[in-house]
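yo

u said u wanted the structure for the complex thing, so here. seqs first:
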Amino acid sequence: MSKRWRAYLLDRLVGMLGLAAAFIGLLFLVALIVSIFKLGIVRLSWDFLTSFPSRFPEKAGIYPAIVGSLWIFVGTALFAIPLGVSAAIYLEEYAKKSWLANVLEINIANLAGVPSIIYGILGLEIFVRTLQMGQSLVAGSLTLALLVLPVVIVVAREALRAVPPSIREAAYALGATKWQTIWKQVLPAAFGNILTGIILALARAIGEAAPLIVVGALTYVPFIPRSPMDEFTVLPIQIFNWVSRPQHGFVINAAAAIIVLLVLVLGLNGIAIFLRYRSQRKVRW
Amino acid sequence: MFRRFIERTVESGLRLSAVLTIVTTIGIVAVLITETIQFFREVSIWEFLTDTQWTPLFAQKHFGILPLLSGTFLTTAIAIIVALPIGLLTAIFLNEYASPRFRSIVKPILELLSAIPTVVYGYFALVFVTPVLQQIIPGLAGFNALSPGIVMGIMIIPFISSLSEDALHAVPQSLREAAYGMGATRVQTLFRVLIPAASSGILASVVLALARAIGETMIVAIAAGQQPRLTLNPLVPIETVTTYIVQVSLGDVPHGSLEYRTIFAAGMVLFLFTVMLSTISFFVNRRFRQQYE
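structre next:
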């Protein structure tokens, strides 16, 4: 066998292995979605979406969990978006190359790597106990807002950075102040990309269970939370609760609840991918 | 006058939001340290680090963190063994072999792997992967480190593949051309030029994936069991540091008790590990960014 032949075969081999590797992830994703749909689809009905949890798997539903998840979604967005975008504007437009900017940058990189369960411990001590919010929706939302804050800041900064300096210079040339330039020109130009990042961050928040378990979200909620100070549960925790039970009926319930959760999370991701795709095509500076 | 007032107010407001991130870090450190100090008033650090049993919720209490650490180590190691070769090969394939069209379709789909909630992975590990593995490995317990480890490995593939791909992509074209000019084949160029040149970026991606695996909670809480055990056997039930925190949070341990404080001590250990990894990744990343500029 000639040297050239061997080089050719090796090249093919690495290519095939690479293709196989790329497909392992894809196949796994397909297997996960198909198997869970197959198991859970039978339980999915209007009753399942609008019933309270129960000792009997056939009668149990996810109504309080869905309502709780929606509350948490909105609450997290309310806290995380203004704070994250403001911090990003400060870092990108105001504080370039100062020592504070340097510290902030290292700190945010560090925070992004802190496990979500640690945020739960923080929320438990600060929001639930010290600020006496109890095991409420506000405490849960604030905890998740802190969790997604680093992600929001990072994506918002990238979006701001993508706005070319010429836009800012043009605004300054017309006599606009710094804040006017940012508010009227830079932010609208970066809006699409910021929104994409925020949606991805919030999609992560509604899938989180661990920090909310530590904060003290309940596993059995026979009522609908009506105010931000109410106790609550969310879909991921309801799923976790059902998985940990021995009866097979609850395993099917968990699969059905996962279908709902996946539709929400993948739906949000789909919207984000679509927005990114559209803004990539449209924007030409 | 008024304009300048607005400008100043806005700037301080924005700075305040940014500084809040530092307050968060201080909050985390303060909470963990105060409760951990309380914990170590009652339990000696020596016992914490060397005792081979972790039974704070039993009558016969032992406070050795080693069994929890071995659980975390085991699942993390399995995850990296799965994710590193697959992620790296995927990055190589997408960057050097695949057509731009294939790449633009496959990359976003792969990234969905890290978007799926971790409870879903935990469920999949327990209900589908473990039974399949039990057919292949007869001695496998219903709860084990192997199945959640593998599933977690698949989950962190995008961390490694995305960042490694960026690193490979950032290697200047001239290096590639120089290698081809010397008569190197594509594989030779890849393994002797590109991967070494991108090694710091690849390393940073692995460190990030490691941090993610160490802190992962729901997959292991659902599928690995809740039995702290000092072992490296992937076939038996174990408990990780994160699972223990969940276990205590679900039960009704009274606030302020020694049992309650154990979650802060465990959290502290977890926090120290991940901060160490993030810091490594930050500096490695910074070096890699500057390399070719």
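Chain A touches chain B through 88 residues (CB under 8 Å). Chain A is about 75% helix and 0% strand.
cya
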